[in-house]
Amino acid sequence: MSKILIVSDSHGLTRELEVIRERHLSEADVMIHCGDSQLSPDHRSISGYLTVAGNCDFADFPQDLVSNVADKKIFVTHGHHYSVKSSLMNLKYKAKEVHADIVCFGHSHVLGAEVVDGTLFVNPGSIRLPRGRSEKTYVILELQTNQINLSVFESNGREIKSLAQEFII
Question: What CATH superfamily classification does 2-167 receive?
Answer without folding.
Answer: Metallo-dependent phosphatases (3.60.21.10)
